[in-house]
Fold:
Amino acid sequence: MHERMGEVVEWVAGHHNVIATAKLEEFGVTRGERYRLVCSGRLVRAGPGSFRLPGVAPTWIGEVAAAVADLAGAGIVAGRSASRLLHLDGFPESRPELLTERSSRNRSVISSAVVHSTRRAFVSGDLVTVDGLRTSSAMRTILDSPLFEFSRAETENAIDSAIRLKLISESRLRDRVLAQQAGRLNGNRRLVDALIDTGGESHLERRFLAALRRGSIAPPVMQQVFRDGARTIARVDAFFPCGLVVEVAGHATHATRQQRQVDAQRHTELTLLGHVVLTFTYEDLVDRPSWVVDQIRQMTERLDGGRPVSPTVTDSVYIR
Structure:
């Protein structure tokens, strides 16, 4: 028994201090031995089907791992917990959230966990492994967000940050959301609405696209890359076909002298390529979005009206 327990301790140390009943049985620990280990304090019950070692401070990921262990291979980390593991924006540590198929929906898990079930099968790419835990992919997490009652802000954060992290593509997400709506599987209007102003990679860019939509301005190409041979000159926030480049500056931009130098070089090189560059601040988009739209409308009308492609220095301005 002592030899088996040494193997258990070594295994648990690399798995968030959690071990499932089935794994203990693989090590040859019988039901009676488990009972004696718990009574002696050498094992602590974490959930109905999971145990942990004593003397180790509980962690959020350990709690999630215990819930996964309780489902005995029948469930995955999903919802806000998956969003947290995938490093999507705006998801702090919270109650473990898991997803299981309908046939396993009545399994008991650790009391703090939330488990939802689904009829929709898992397809290729729906599952990933993060920190040793079976987790729903960013795509599947977003598709299942209505099950976990994500707020509008949570849904938008998940979409925008997943696009920024290149975990999903906007077009593929749109296709799957619309297909899901047609089949009415785990879908609601909030998820469709959250797609309206996608295309950017941040909440600020979403505000920018929403302002353009309200102002009846056709959406630009987002995250356009400009190159000089193999060298990347700039990856800009928005590019309009008329030659207008728009940057939206959050609080973190232009913070140091070196960053300001890089921004100035980008600005200069884009101007030399014949593009007009306008930059709007966070405050512009939050406090006066209609003014932002008016500036863009005026500039696009000027450029579309037959002006030379190469602008003068005064056309490339930093608007505050």
User: Anything to note?
Assistant: The two ends are 72 Å apart (CA to CA).
